[in-house]
Amino acid sequence: MAPRTRQKTPSHCKPANLSKDYKLSWLQELKHAFQPQPSNQNLDADDEEDNKFFQELVDMRCVDNVRMLIVDAVQTAKAGHSGMPLGMAKVGYILYRHVMRYNPRNPKWFNRDRFVLSAGHGCLLQYICLHLAGFQSVQVSGRPAKALLGSRTPGHPENVVTDGIEVTTVALYFTHVSNDRPLGQGVANAVGLALAEAHSAARFNKPDAVIVDHRTFCIMGDGCVMEGISHEAASLAAHWKLNKLTLIYDDNLNTIDGATSLAFSEDISARFKALRWNTITVDDTHNDMEAIKNALLSAFRETEKPTFIRVKTDRYKQSMEWHSRLCYYQTKYPQEFVEFKILLDGGLLPGWESSLPKFPTSDPVDATQGYSEKCLSQLAKVLPGLIRGSADLATSNKAYLHGHEDFSQPNSPWGCNIRYGVREHAMAGISNGIALHGSGLIPFAATFLVFSDYMKNSIRLSALSHAGVIYIMTHDSIGLGEDGPTHQPAVEQLAGLRAVPQLLVFRPADGNETAGAYKVAVANRNVPSLIALSRQKVAANLEGTSRASVERGGYIVSDNSEDKLPDIILIGTGSELCLCDEGAKMLRQEGRTVRVVSLVCWRLFDMQPQQYKEFVLPPSVSKRVSVEAASPIGWREYVGEEGVVVGVEEFGASGAYLDTFKKFGFTEGNITRIAKSLLSQ
User: Fold this and answer.
1) What is the pTM of this model?
2) Rounded to an integer, what is the distance from CA 314 to the centroid of its chain?
3) How many Cα neighbours within 13 Å face the side chain of 356?
4) Does the annotation mark 373 as catalytic?
5) Of 166, 197, 232, 424, which residue is the catalytic one?
6) Following DSSP, what letter does each residue of 491-534 receive, concatenated?
7) Residue 501 backbone class (left: φ over 0; alpha: ψ -120 to 50; beta: rest)
8) d(C-alpha 580, C-alpha 574), whole Å
C-alpha cells in the first residue's frame, strides 16, 4: 500500500525572498500605480514584512492587467461574456501565479496540477491566464485571439484545440448572451481527474519515490450547482475522500434570466458540508486578496476531505525536478516503472488483442452481455489501465472485474472497480475525467441502454473531448422481456446515440462480434465507444461472423450467390442477425440467392472506402430488408427506397421476450415472409 503522506503547503506556494532584480523591474510601475503609498511601508526596504507588502502590490497590479485584457478582448470582439472573468480574475491569477504547478513549455507534463473551468462561459479568464503564463497555444498577436473559425481560443474551452485546457466544458463565450449548457459537467470531470490521481498514486508511489502527486482545481458557477450532476459527483468525491480536489464556487447571485433568487435559495456551503466536504467561505474578494490565497493554500493541509471554497465574487524547475524523481524511481523500482511507463504511453501492451476469447459455433450460446463479461475478464489480465464502473448494476451488466478490489479511500485506492451508486450522469462525467487524466486509465461505464438518456450530455462531451470512454449498455431491446417498456430501449436510444458525431456505437450479434467490438473500442483511445448488449441469449454463435471484420463496421456474413449478385440482401444487428441468418436458410432452400450482412457499427461502415461499401451492399441489388428491434430511423440509407425496414415504432411491451418479439414481428417466419413478398414485386 502506498503511504498516505501528510499534506502541507508545497514549497512553490510559500512566500519567497524577492530578488533585487525582480523588485527593480516592478518598482517604478508600483510607485506610479499606487499613489499615495502607505506611510508605514517602504517599497525599497528588504525585510520580510516589506517584501510581503511588495508582492501584494505586484499581485494587485497583475490582476488589474488581467481585467484590462478581459475588457479589451470583449471590446475588440464586440461581444462576449466578461462578468465571470472579471469577478474571478483574482482567483484565476492566484491559481496560476501562486498555487498550481504546470509547465507551459510542456503542457502535457504528467505531474502537472489540473484545472477545470466547469463554468465554461468564463473561458476568457482561462485563456488570458494561459497567455500570461506563457502557453504557446494562446500566444496570438500578443493576446488571446477572438473565437473565430479555426481559432485556438474557441467559444468554449476545448482540450483538443488549446494546450493547457484539460477537458472540454460547455458554454458559448463569444455571443451576446452566455448560453452555457450543459453545466456541471466540469465538476464531474474534475472528480474523475482527482480519482485517477488517487488511483495512480496508490499503485505507483513509494515512500522514497513519489512520482504521482498533483492536485485538481475546478471553478463552477451558479448554474453548475443547480444541475444535478454536480451534486452526484460531489457526493462521490467526498465518499471517496478525494482530498486533493478543490472546488471553487463563483457565488455571484446571477444567471441569464436574472437573480438566482428567482429559482434558487439553497445554502450551498451547508449542502457541501452535509456531503462531508471541507468548506471555506471568502466573503471579501475585492479588498482581501490574501484571504483567497490562504483559502486555496489551506486545502493542501486537508488529508481526508475534498475542499469547497465559496467565493462571493518559476514553474519550469518543478517539471525538471519531477523527471529527476522519475529517473530515481526507474532505478529503484524497475518493475513498477515499466507498468507506469506503459500507462503513460497509452496503456496498451503489444499483442493485447490476442487475449480476447474466440467463440466457435459449437460453444454454448449466451447473451451478448455474457460474452462481454468473458471479454472483460481476459482484457483485465493484459490491460493494466482498465478501470470499471457501474451505476448500481454491476451484477446485471456483468461488468465487474473479479479478482480486483473496489476503489475506496483509504482502504484500496488502487482498486479497479468503482461503485457509482444510482448516478448514471455523474458516472459518465467522471469517466471523462478519468480518460483525460493522461495516466493511461481506460474507463468503462456500465448501465442499461435505456438509461443512456440520463448520460447523454456527458456521452456527447466524450466525443467532443476525444475521451476514450467505453460505455457498456446492456438490456438493449424489447428482448429484455418482462420488465416492460420502461426498461426496453425500443425506440429512440440507438438512433439518438448513432447521431452523436465520433461516437462508435456497436451492437454485436454474438461472441465473436462482441470480442471484435472490444478490440476496436480499446484500440481507439481518442474516441468513445458504446457497446449495446443483449440480456437474452442469442440464438446461435453464427458461422461467418468475424472478430476482425467488426473494425469495418459492416461485412458479409454469408452469401450463396457465388460470383453473381444475390437476389436479396438481409441486413441485421445484434440478436436479430440470427433471424436474418435463419430467414436466409429458408429462402435458399427455395432456390433463392441471399446475402446476409452484419451492420454492427454504422459509423465505421460509413467511414469505409466507397468501393468496399458497394461491394457489401451493391447498388444494383435494390431488394433489401433490415432487421433491428429498435427505431427504423436511419435504416433507409442502407436499404434504399425499395427496401423494407423491420423495426419498432412503439414503446415495447411487457411479456416473455419471445412473446414480445413475436408481437412486433421479430420471428424467422415473419422475416422470411417479408423477404418473399419483396422478391415477388
Assistant:
1) 0.86
2) 32
3) 23
4) no
5) 424
6) SSHHHHHHTSTT-EEE---SHHHHHHHHHHHHH-TTS-EEEE--
7) beta
8) 11
CB 160 within 8 A of CB 91: no
CB within 8 A of 181, min separation 6: which ones? 170
Amino acid (1-letter code) at residue 81: H
Do you find a cis peptide bond into 566, omega within 30 degrees of 0?
no
Per-residue confidence (pLDDT) for residue 87, from 0 to 100:
85
How many of the other CB atoms lie within 10 Å of CB of 249? 27
Q: Decide if 227 contacts 123 (C-beta within 8 A).
A: no
Ranges of the chain whose pLDDT falls below 70 = 1-17, 35-46, 77-80, 140-157, 170-181, 286, 314-319
Strands 594-598 and 555-559: what pairing?
Answer: antiparallel
Give the whole-angstrom CA distance, residue 668 versus residue 663. Answer: 13
Question: Which domains are present in the chain?
Answer: 88-119+160-169+179-312 (3.40.50.970), 346-538 (3.40.50.970), 551-680 (3.40.50.920)
Amino acid letter at 1? M
Residue 28 falls in which region: left (phi positive, over 0), alpha (psi -120 to 50) or beta: alpha
Of 238, 253, 214, 222, the residue nearest 308 (C-alpha):
238
DSSP H stretches of helix in 355-450: 368-382, 394-397, 424-435
Q: Where are the alpha helices (DSSP H) in 97-211?
A: 123-133, 185-204
pLDDT of residue 188: 94
Distance CA 612, CA 549 (A): 12
The helix (run of H) or strand (run of E) holding residue 604 is helix 602-606
Query: What is the residue type of 269?
Result: S
Contact 426, 420 (CB under 8 A): yes
Q: Which residue is associated with the grid cell 432452400?
A: 589
CA distances from 641 to 11, 338, 673 (A): 70, 56, 19
Q: How far apart are CA 246 and CA 95, in angstroms?
A: 11
Predicted pLDDT at 315? 44
Cα distance between residue 63 and residue 460, in whole Å: 35
What pLDDT is recorded for position 124? 86
DSSP secondary structure letter of residue 440: -
C-alpha span between 430 and 196 (Å, rounded): 10
Q: What is the pLDDT of residue 13?
A: 59
Look-up: residue for cell 506503459? 342
CA atoms within 13 A on the CB side of 309: 25
Rounded Cα distance, 580 and 646, in Å: 11
